[in-house]
Prior knowledge:
The protein has a domain at 1-52. It contains 1 helix and no strands. 57% of the residues lie in helices and 0% in strands. It is mainly α.
Amino acid sequence: MSKTRHFFSGFSEGFGDFGRVVSATFNYIILSIVYFLGVGATVLAARLKRKHFLEIEPPVKPSYFMESDVKRKEKDSYYRQF
């Protein structure tokens, strides 16, 4: 009985190791295919439409900063500014 139990425990462990290797291999292959098809299709569509997702030069926009008046003001004008 001990030999059969030892055989089946080793057999089970071997199949578990084999299953992990096979699943890791297939996951790598399948995810690589999905990635290259998904990203590749997106890149091709973008290039056909001449779309650039990253703009290299920032667009020129007016600044939201206001000119500062650098004069002495009353102390009360600094309270409750917002």
